[in-house]
Structure formats: C-alpha cells, structure tokens
Specification:
2 domains; Ribulose 1,5 Bisphosphate Carboxylase/Oxygenase; 8 helices; Rossmann fold; four-stranded antiparallel beta sheet; alpha/beta
C-alpha cells in the first residue's frame, strides 16, 4: 500500500469509507477536502458491470458537461484547405496536416488535450497510432473527433465536451469540473454526466450497468456516491 501524506490522512478522516453519500453531501465534502494550493480537478470514477473481455461492450464516446470542465482545452486539428481555415476560425490551437503529424512523430509534440481530424486526413495519421493511441489522443469517429464539421467539434470540446472510454477493467474515469466550482454547478455536472453515461449502456450488459460511483479531487480521498440520488434510481 502506498504511504499517504499527513495532509491526505487528515482529509481521509472527513470521509466515511463505508457510507454512500448523497450528491449534495458528496459535493460539500469535495469542497472540504480540496485544500491543495492549486485548483484541483474533480474526477468521476464509475465501476461498471461491463464484461471488458467483450469488445462490443466497451465504451468510447463523449459527453457534454453543462458547466464545462473548468480547464482551458488545447485542441489540435488535422485538416487542409477550407477545413483548416474553419478550424482556425473556431478557435483551434494548432492546425495542420503532414507537417503536424511529423512534428508529433519526430519531435514528441504532445502539447494538446484533444486531436480532431477530417476523414481524408486519417491516412496521414496511420503512423501516429502507436504514439497517440496509448495517450487517448488518436482521433476516432466514436468520440466525434473524426469529422468534416471541424468547427462544431472544436467549439464543443472547448466548451466542455469530454471523452469517456472504458479502461482495461471496464471502468470509466473522467473530469467533471474544478473544486472552485460552486456546489450547484459541480452537482449539475456530476448528475448530467451520470445520466449521459447511463445512456451509453451497451446492449449486452446484464443486471445493473453501474455498480459503484466515486468522486475525488486531484489530491483528495474518494467519496462514494449514493447512485439512487443521481438519476431517479436508474442503474
């Protein structure tokens, strides 16, 4: 077991590990346990009943947070000509084609959070699968990052669209805001995210889809949620 800091152990005393907290209680605790000198990110961790050995049950999609993530999202777009101009006008941080792919492959350039590509650029990105894939940055139609409507995609990710994808054990981990958010905005983001994840339930999942939900700030302890307070008892 990793050794935790004195600060973390003190914060841990504020949270009952056996209790499932209502959304309002959990948000209140997040505010109390986010005491770092920076604005901590609030992460949502969802344990699902997915059989991760079955590829058709794995999730890769996006959800939109009503109040954004609180983070300035750096968007890179692979596009040419008119589509490149559309991406720039929509606020993309980096726009290019082969030269951008070369910069990533040869110089290890990863100063971006989301990569978007027009369909015709996918042949250029073939060589980047091994470096972008493990980082979760490879454009993919399922996550809305391979599209001809680059302007809309850039705008959506800038406003708070986040990718959700199952890990190697079939669980989900993604940001839902910042500790500095008001309790109301944080609660709204968490509830909305939970309901959107419920809608992504794969057809083959048996029984309850979501087994457990936990929120935690970057440096704080996990807080187990009473999922019945999130979406009218639906699991």
């Amino acid at each position: 077991m990793p050794k935790h800091s004195k600060r973390y152990n003190e914060l841990r005393k504020l949270v009952d590990p056996e209790k499932s907290y209502s959304l309002e209680e959990a948000v209140e605790l997040i505010k109390k346990t986010s005491t770092a000198k920076f604005d901590e990110t609030v992460e949502f961790h969802i344990k699902t009943n997915i059989d991760y050995r079955k590829s058709e049950q794995n999730i890769r999609s996006t959800i939109s947070l009503p109040n954004g993530t609180g983070k300035s999202v750096r968007v890179l777009v692979f596009a040419k000509g008119e589509k490149a101009e559309e991406a720039k006008n929509a606020g993309a941080d980096y726009v290019g084609a082969e030269e951008l792919a070369d910069k990533i492959a040869n110089e290890g350039f990863f100063d971006f959070d989301v990569a978007i590509a027009t369909p015709d650029m996918m042949k250029v990105l073939g060589k980047l699968g091994k470096v972008l894939g493990p980082r979760g940055l490879m454009p993919n139609p399922k996550s809305g990052t391979v599209t001809d409507d680059v302007a809309a995609a850039v705008s959506e990710f800038k406003k708070g669209k986040v990718e959700v994808r199952t890990d190697k054990t079939g669980n989900l981990h993604f940001p839902v805001g910042k500790a500095s958010f008001t309790p109301e905005k944080l609660a709204e983001n968490i509830k909305s995210a939970y309901e959107q994840v419920l809608a992504l339930r794969p057809a083959g999942v048996k029984g309850h889809f979501i087994k457990k939900a936990v929120i935690a700030s970057t440096m704080g302890p996990g807080i187990k949620l009473d999922i019945n307070t999130l979406a009218e008892g639906k699991k």
